[in-house]
């Protein structure tokens, strides 16, 4: 299997706070890889390091053979075309209408004519159940709609690999199922590599080829959904069963004094 993302021995602190204390894993080409873990364990920070938005203190990250920490000029541009990060918040440009947000990269970076770019934007918006929103402004959309526009924008860039930061938080169950189906379609029909940070256990089991559980600075388990369901690891068990008592609570209580 071809390696898409390789993370080796990643360490990241913010001041005294240790967020990653030696995180290693590999994501394979065409895989749907879900990262789960309690709030504040560093899932977003992990994605942002892979996307070269935050620098790690130590470790190595490679994306399709590119050394992410050493990228410069053309290679950086190639990296940005290979991998796209979908922000949790959507991070849209408020002064542009929806279609221009989606088509921004095509028009501004690739010089695609506005008419063609708009058609492409409409196609990707339709995949996300957003037909007819082209001329609205982000402020006129619900939070869930903004999230979906951000996904359409990522698809419009046609990257090999998409990092989704909690794409289904704040979405209703039907919209969650639609987004899950889209991730599966991206994988099966378009051979994309998808890395998804999620809190939603049902959604994770539905889409993942493999799931990694991040806790207390480390990956405590990686496995297929079946392996994760059968895991005897107390952290994994507490997390996927949503139990109030267990090792996760004990660590949180210790940290909070
Ligand atoms: N730029 C930053 N400066 C300082 N601390 C930060 C910064 N970004 C994140 N942190 C801290 O790093 C830790 C991990 O944050 P992160 O957002 O990655 O958690 P998460 O697992 O994605 O949480 P959630 O599931 O709640 O979204 C948190 O304690 C957070 O406060």
Structure description:
With about 260 residues, the protein is of the alpha/beta class. It has one domain (about 5-255): 3-Layer(aba) Sandwich (Rossmann fold). Helices cover about 40% and strands about 25% of the residues. A six-stranded mixed beta sheet has the order 6-7-8-3-9-10, with helices on both faces. It has a four-stranded antiparallel beta sheet with strand order 2-1-4-5, with helices on one face. α3 packs parallel to α5 and α4 crosses α5 (about 145-155). The protein is globular and about 55 Å long. It starts with a strand and ends with a helix. The model has no long low-confidence stretch (mean pLDDT about 90). Adenosine-5'-triphosphate binds near residues 17, 37, 41, 44 and 45. Adenosine-5'-triphosphate (ATP) binds near residues 44 and 45.
User: Which compounds are bound in this model?
Assistant: adenosine-5'-triphosphate
CATH superfamily: P-loop containing nucleotide triphosphate hydrolases
Strand tally is: 10
**What count of helical segments does DSSP give?**
10
Q: Report helical residue fraction.
A: 40-55%
Question: What's the end-to-end separation, in Å?
Answer: 45 Å
Tell me the Rg in angstroms: 19 Å
Task: Assign the CATH topology.
Answer: Rossmann fold
Q: Biggest β-sheet, characterized? A: 6 strands, mixed
Strand line-up of the largest beta sheet = 6-7-8-3-9-10
SSE run: EEEHEEHEHHHEHEHEEHHH
Net shape: globular
Strand percentage lies at 15-25%
* Low-confidence sequence ranges: none
The level 1 CATH classification is Alpha Beta
The CATH architecture term is 3-Layer(aba) Sandwich
Number of domains: 1
Mean pLDDT, as a whole number?
89
Which structural class is indicated by helix and strand composition? alpha/beta
GO molecular function: ATP binding; ATP hydrolysis activity
Keywords: ATP-binding, Nucleotide-binding, Transport
Pfam families: ABC_tran
Organism: Balnearium lithotrophicum
